[in-house]
Design a protein that fits this description.
The chain is mainly alpha-helical. It contains 3 helices and no strands.
Length: 68
């Protein structure tokens, strides 16, 4: 989904949206897993990126008491 699609969805649904970078979390996750993945086929970046997004959504949900 593009940022434009996401903006359209939030307008359509009448919900708040936030743009939160996952780059730092993603880089840290790759570094933390580097030894574990050494000598193995490359991790699929999209899978790890989606899990970083999920962690952010879970954190917001837990902090606000709202379901995503």
């Amino acid at each position: 989904m593009s940022l434009e699609d996401a903006d359209e969805q939030t307008r359509t649904l009448g919900v708040k949206s936030s743009l939160i970078s996952i780059e730092g979390m993603f880089t840290a996750a790759l570094a933390a897993l580097a030894d574990e993945f050494a000598g193995k086929s490359a991790i699929r970046r999209g899978e790890l990126q989606s899990r970083c997004r999920m962690l952010i959504l879970m954190g917001i949900s837990n902090k606000t008491g709202r379901c995503c």
